[in-house]
From TrEMBL:
GO terms for molecular function: phosphatidylinositol-3,4-bisphosphate binding; phosphatidylinositol-3,5-bisphosphate binding; phosphatidylinositol-3-phosphate binding; phosphatidylinositol-4,5-bisphosphate binding; phosphatidylinositol-4-phosphate binding; phosphatidylinositol-5-phosphate binding. PROSITE patterns: CRAL_TRIO. It comes from Phaetusa simplex. SUPFAM superfamilies: Spectrin repeat (SSF46966). Belongs to the SOLO family. This is SESD1 protein. InterPro entries: CRAL-TRIO_dom, Spectrin_SESTD1. Keywords: Repeat. Residues 1-135 form the CRAL-TRIO domain.
Length: 688
C-alpha cells in the first residue's frame, strides 16, 4: 500500500524458512500486478524482498523471477538481508553483474537502512516504518471484492438475458431508497432466491464502498492522515460501476418481474375464466340438456326438483369462482395498464355472459319444475275430488226422509262446485305452465327442444282433457242423481202430505162424532145444522180427494224411481178406512138431521094450528105419524154407528144424547097434549 519517492507502488515479498513454491509465487505476483491501473504501473514498482528468514538461493531465484514476471514495471528491488548471514561481496557482485540483464537495480540493504530509499511513512512496522497495514483485512476485502465482482458479473449476464433488452426502469432512483428497499426484500421470505441474491450483492457492494471511503477520509488511530492504497482506490470505481449496473439491471428486472407477474396473473385469470366457461358451456349445459321433462305426477316432479337441486349445487361452486374472478378482474381494471383493459374487459364480459345465461337457465328450469309440481298437485286434488264425487254418485240413495235427501243433495252440489273450482284452478295452472314452456327458446339448452316440449304440452293438455271428461261425466251423473233425489223429495213430500190428509180426515171424523151431536130445537135450526153438515162433508171430501191425488202421485213417482211405494200398503188403506168411517158417520148424521127436520116441522105445524079450526085435526093419522117419527128419532139416538170392521161409535157422550132425547120427548109431550086437547071437544058433543 505504500509508495516510493517516485510515487511508484511498493510491492513487499516476505520470504520464510519453509520451501517457497515459485509457481505459487509467480501466480500471486501476476494477480497482485493485475490490480493497479496502467497509469500506476507506468510509474514503476519498488519491490521489497524480505529475505531475513530465507536463504540466499531462494532470494536470488525470486529476484530472477521478477525479470520474467514484471521486468518493465520494476524500478528497484530492495533485498532486505539478515544481519549475520550472506557474504556481501558475493551477493553484491552477483546482482551488480546481472544488472544490465535484469533491467532493474537490485540492492542489498539491512532493515534499518531501508529508510534511505523509502520514506518511513511508506514502510510498515516490520521495516521500521509507520504505515498501518493489516494483511488479513486486505485479504478479506480482496476476497469480498473478487467474489462480488464474479457474482455481480454473472448476475448481470443473467439479468441481461432475463430482461431481454427491456428498458423500463428508473435509473435516477435514490441510493438510500435502494438500500432500504433491498434490506426489506431480504427480510421477506416470499421473494424469489434470485432477487435475494441480487439484493445481497448490492448490499455487499455498499458495505465495501463504505469501508473504502471510510479508510480514505478517516485518519489512522494516531490521528495521522492516511492515503488509501491504489488498489482500493481502483476498486471504488469498479464497485460503483458494478453497483450502478446491478441497480439498473435490478430495476429493469423488477419491471420484467412485474410485467411477468402481471402477465402470469392475467394468464391464471384467463385460465380460470376458461375453466368456468368451459364447464358451464360443457358439462353444466349438458346436465340441463338431459333434464327437460316435467314429470307425470307429484312424486316425479319432486324427484326432478331434487335432481335439479343437485345440479344447482354443482353450479354454485363455479358461481363462487365466478364471483372471486370478477373481483380480481375488477381490481386489475382499477389498477391495470391501458393495454390490459381491453383484454380484461373482454374476459369479464365473456364470464358474465356465460354465468348469467347459465343462471337464467337454472332459474327458468326451477320455475318450470315448481309450476309443474303445482299443476300436478292441483290435478291430484281434483282427481281425488272427482273420485269422491263419483263414489258418492255410485252409492244408491236410501235416505230415511226428505230432510236427509235435502242434506245429501246440498252436499252433492257443494262437491260439484268444489270440482268446478278445482278444474278452473287446474286450467289456470296448466295454461301458466304451457306459457312457460312456449317461452322456452331453443337457445336455452343449446338445442332444439320442440320434441321435448311437445311431449310436455301433450301431457299437460291430456291431463286437463281427462279431468274435463271426468268432470263432465260426473256432471251428467249429478244431473241424473239430482233429478232422482228431487223426485224422492217429492215422493216423501207426497207421502207426508197424504199421511197428513189421513190425519186431517181422522180429525174431521173425530170432530163429527164428538161435536156434531145437536139436532136443533126447531125445524129451522135443524135445517141450518143440516146445511153446515153438508159443508163439513164437502171439506172432508176435498181432504179425501187431496189424499187420493197425493197417493196417485206417489205411485207415479215410485214407478219413475223404480221403487216400492210404502203408501200403497199403509197410507191408502188408512185413507180409505177413515173415509169409509166418515161417510157412514156422515150418512147417519144426515139421516138423524133429516128425521129431526121432519119431526120438528110436523110438530110445529100441529102446535101452531088454532083450535077453532077443528077440520085441521080430523085426521088422527098426523099425530100418530109425528109420534112414530119422534120414537124413531129417539131410537136412532140410542143406536151407535157401526163400521164395516164391526167397531161402533156413538155421537157425543151419553149425557149429550140424553139431553137431545129429552128435548124430543118434551116436544112429543106437547104434541100429545095438543092431541088430547083436540079430542076433548069431540067427546063432549055426543053427551050434549
Amino acid at each position: 500500500g505504500g509508495k516510493d519517492r517516485r510515487s511508484g507502488l511498493i510491492l513487499t515479498i516476505p520470504l520464510c524458512l519453509e520451501q517457497t513454491s515459485m509457481d505459487e509465487l509467480s501466480v500471486t505476483l501476476d494477480y497482485l500486478l493485475s490490480i493497479p491501473s496502467e497509469k500506476c504501473k507506468a510509474r514503476g514498482f519498488t519491490v521489497i524482498v524480505d529475505g531475513r528468514k530465507s536463504q540466499w538461493n531462494v532470494v536470488k531465484t525470486v529476484v530472477l523471477m521478477l525479470q520474467n514476471v514484471v521486468p518493465a514495471e520494476v524500478s528497484l528491488v530492495c533485498v532486505v538481508k539478515p544481519d549475520e548471514f550472506w557474504d556481501k561481496k558475493v551477493t553484491h557482485f552477483c546482482f551488480w553483474k546481472e544488472k544490465d540483464r535484469l533491467g532493474f537495480e537490485v540492492i542489498l540493504v539491512s532493515a534499518n537502512k531501508l529508510t534511505r530509499y523509502i520514506e518511513p511513512c511508506q514502510l510498515t512496522e516490520d521495516f521500521g516504518g509507520t504505515l498501518t497495514y493489516d494483511h488479513m483485512d486486505w485479504l478479506n476485502k480482496r476476497l469480498v471484492f473478487e467474489k462480488f465482482t464474479k457474482e455481480s458479473t454473472s448476475l448481470l449476464d443473467e439479468l441481461a438475458l432475463i430482461n431481454n433488452g427491456s428498458d423500463k426502469g428508473n435509473q435516477q432512483e435514490k441510493e438510500r431508497f435502494v438500500i432500504c428497499f433491498l434490506e426489506s426484500m431480504l427480510l421477506d421470505h416470499k421473494i424469489s432466491l434470485e432477487i435475494q441474491t441480487i439484493a445481497l450483492n448490492i448490499l455487499k457492494c455498499h458495505e465495501l464502498l463504505s469501508e473504502l471511503q471510510q479508510r480514505r477520509f478517516n485518519g489512522s488511530d494516531g490521528g495521522v492522515s492516511w492515503s488509501p492504497m491504489d488498489d482500493e482506490l481502483l476498486a471504488q470505481p469498479q464497485v460503483m460501476k458494478l453497483l450502478d449496473s446491478l441497480r439498473e439491471q435490478y430495476t429493469r428486472y423488477q419491471e420484467v418481474c412485474r410485467q411477468r407477474s402481471k402477465r402470469t396473473q392475467l394468464e391464471e385469470i384467463q385460465q380460470k375464466v376458461m375453466q368456468v366457461v368451459n364447464w358451464l358451456e360443457g358439462p353444466g349445459s349438458e346436465q340441463l340438456r338431459t333434464q327437460w321433462g316435467i314429470g307425470d305426477s307429484i312424486r316425479a316432479s319432486q324427484a326432478l326438483q331434487q335432481k335439479h337441486e343437485e345440479i344447482e349445487s354443482q353450479h354454485s361452486e363455479w358461481f363462487a369462482v365466478y364471483v372471486e374472478l370478477n373481483q380480481q378482474i375488477a381490481a386489475l381494471l382499477n389498477a391495470g395498464d391501458e393495454e390490459d383493459l381491453v383484454e380484461l374487459k373482454a374476459l369479464q364480459q365473456q364470464l358474465s355472459d356465460v354465468c348469467y345465461r347459465q343462471a337464467s337457465q337454472l332459474e327458468f328450469r326451477q320455475n318450470l319444475l315448481q309450476a309443474a309440481l303445482e299443476f300436478h298437485s292441483v290435478a291430484q286434488d281434483l282427481s281425488q275430488q272427482l273420485d269422491g264425487l263419483l263414489g258418492m254418485l255410485c252409492v244408491d240413495v236410501a235416505p230415511a226422509d226428505g230432510a236427509s235427501i235435502q242434506q245429501t243433495l246440498k252436499l252433492l252440489e257443494e262437491k260439484l262446485k268444489s270440482v268446478d273450482s278445482g278444474l278452473q284452478g287446474l286450467r289456470e295452472k296448466g295454461q301458466s305452465l304451457l306459457d312457460q314452456i312456449s317461452n322456452q327458446a331453443s337457445w336455452a339448452y343449446g338445442k332444439d327442444v320442440t320434441i321435448e316440449n311437445k311431449e310436455n304440452v301433450d301431457h299437460i293438455q291430456g291431463v286437463m282433457e281427462d279431468m274435463q271428461l271426468r268432470k263432465q261425466r260426473c256432471e251428467d251423473m249429478v244431473d241424473v242423481r239430482r233429478l232422482k233425489m228431487l223426485q224422492m223429495v217429492q215422493l216423501f213430500k207426497c207421502e207426508e202430505d197424504a199421511a197428513q190428509a189421513v190425519e186431517w180426515l181422522s180429525e174431521l171424523l173425530d170432530a163429527l162424532l164428538k161435536t156434531h151431536i145437536r139436532l136443533g130445537d126447531d125445524a129451522q135450526e135443524t135445517k141450518v145444522l143440516l146445511e153446515k153438515h153438508r159443508k163439513f162433508v164437502d171439506v172432508a171430501q176435498s181432504t179425501y180427494d187431496y189424499g187420493r191425488q197425493l197417493l196417485q202421485a206417489t205411485v207415479v213417482l215410485c214407478q219413475s224411481l223404480r221403487c216400492t211405494s210404502r203408501s200403497s200398503g199403509d197410507t191408502l188403506p188408512r185413507l180409505n178406512r177413515v173415509w169409509k168411517q166418515f161417510t157412514i158417520t156422515s150418512d147417519e148424521r144426515v139421516h138423524r138431521l133429516e128425521t129431526a127436520v121432519a119431526f120438528h116441522s110436523s110438530a110445529e105445524k100441529i102446535l101452531q094450528e088454532c083450535p077453532e079450526q077443528p077440520e085441521a085435526f080430523n085426521e088422527v093419522e098426523q099425530f100418530d105419524e109425528i109420534e112414530a117419527v119422534g120414537k124413531s128419532l129417539l131410537d136412532r139416538l140410542t143406536v151407535p154407528v157401526v163400521y164395516p170392521d164391526g167397531s161402533e161409535q156413538y155421537f157425543g157422550s151419553p149425557s149429550d144424547m140424553a139431553s137431545a132425547a129429552e128435548h124430543i120427548r118434551e116436544k112429543m109431550k106437547l104434541v100429545s097434549l095438543k092431541k088430547q086437547q083436540l079430542r076433548q071437544p069431540e067427546a063432549a058433543t055426543p053427551d050434549s
